């Protein structure tokens, strides 16, 4: 895709993201929370309305582009064909509901199966992370550089302990410097992108949880693979790690040792 065309799309998306600064406070003020599959599976008017806004934006500015997003059915979309946006309108909904902090909007733009633009908007902290294929990654317009090599013994790592068995957690504790988890796959991944965490693991992400991370990883020399060290299919997702180059092999070795990482 031509650089000018990419930059035009980027300008339009930036302008759309700016509109969120007005919309989100009002939505939070009138927040209505409902549950989906169980009492921990939350969705709010904030998630739904942001997604509807983006859908309207695409229809108006880029009518040939398709939206593949969490709060809709995506049965009619082949994510690997044409112009496709994958969106998590709020990643970290539990954090939004319980803390009004540590949630983000995730957007990944794919052209015929290739990621070309990615955004993670950390609205509460006013940080917009962006990656452009072939042109690097930025936070609020400032260039992000490839993080320094981190060895696992010096690294903080992030994962959800509810889904990993005790033996594996104990091995991870012994091999790493420490554990932290923000509770937003997008923001935990950005900690790896900035060199603050050595790795983030999610054993069951959907396409929208990891749509933006592909481009950040490729632009910044990070590893992003399945937990079997295989390439990830963005259209189906599945067990995933985003990692500093210095931690990836050791993390996978620990997760796959013995009976593996699964809790049950
Ligand atoms: P949470 O705060 O609800 O979610 C933390 C992060 O994980 C968010 O990015 C969230 O995206 C995503 N997420 C939510 N449900 C998930 C699921 N079933 N599988 C994978 N990722 C998920 O997390 P929690 O309160 O600790 O846990 C809530 C439920 O999600 C539990 O059943 C937990 O086992 C499961 N979970 C599993 C993993 C995993 O690695 N397999 C990771 C996190 C949570 P949204 O905010 O967009 O939902
Ligand atoms: Ca999510
Ligand atoms: Ca979500």
TrEMBL record:
Any GO molecular function: inositol monophosphate 1-phosphatase activity
Binding site for Mg(2+) 2: 90
InterPro entries referenced in this protein's UniProt entry, alphabetically: Inositol_monophosphatase-like
Record field: transmembrane: none
Keywords, comma-separated and alphabetical: Hydrolase, Magnesium, Metal-binding
Keyword presence, Aminoacyl-tRNA synthetase: no
Cofactor: Mg(2+)
Enzyme Commission number(s): 3.1.3.25
Alphabetized Gene3D superfamilies for the sequence: 3.40.190.80, Fructose-1,6-Bisphosphatase, subunit A, domain 1
GO biological process, one term: signal transduction
Chain sites annotated for binding Mg(2+) 1: 70, 88, 91, 209
Keyword Methyltransferase: no
Protein name, entry field: Inositol monophosphatase
Source organism (scientific name): Staphylococcus caeli
Gene designation: suhB_1
């Amino acid at each position: 895709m031509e650089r000018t065309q990419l930059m035009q799309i980027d300008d339009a998306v930036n302008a759309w993201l700016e509109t969120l600064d007005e919309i989100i406070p009002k939505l939070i003020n009138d927040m209505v929370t409902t549950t989906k599959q169980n009492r921990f599976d939350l969705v709010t008017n904030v998630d739904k309305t942001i997604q509807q806004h983006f859908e309207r934006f695409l229809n108006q500015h880029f009518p040939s582009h398709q939206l593949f997003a969490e709060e809709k059915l995506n049965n009619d979309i082949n994510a690997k064909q044409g112009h496709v946006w994958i969106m998590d309108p709020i990643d970290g909904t539990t954090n939004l509901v319980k803390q009004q902090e540590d949630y983000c909007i995730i957007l990944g733009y794919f052209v015929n199966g290739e990621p070309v633009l990615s955004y993670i908007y950390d609205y509460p902290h006013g940080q917009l992370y962006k990656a452009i294929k072939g042109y690097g990654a930025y936070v609020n317009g400032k260039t992000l550089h490839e993080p320094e090599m981190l060895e696992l013994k010096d690294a903080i790592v992030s994962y959800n302990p509810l889904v990993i068995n005790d033996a594996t957690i104990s091995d991870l504790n012994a091999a790493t410097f420490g554990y932290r988890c923000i509770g937003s796959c997008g923001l935990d991944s950005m900690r790896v992108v900035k060199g603050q965490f050595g790795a983030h693991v999610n054993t069951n992400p959907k396409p929208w949880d990891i749509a933006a991370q592909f481009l950040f990883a490729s632009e910044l020399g990070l590893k992003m693979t399945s937990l079997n060290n295989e390439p990830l299919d963005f259209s189906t997702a599945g067990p995933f790690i985003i990692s500093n180059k210095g931690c990836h092999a050791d993390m996978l070795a620990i997760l796959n040792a013995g009976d593996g990482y699964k809790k049950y």
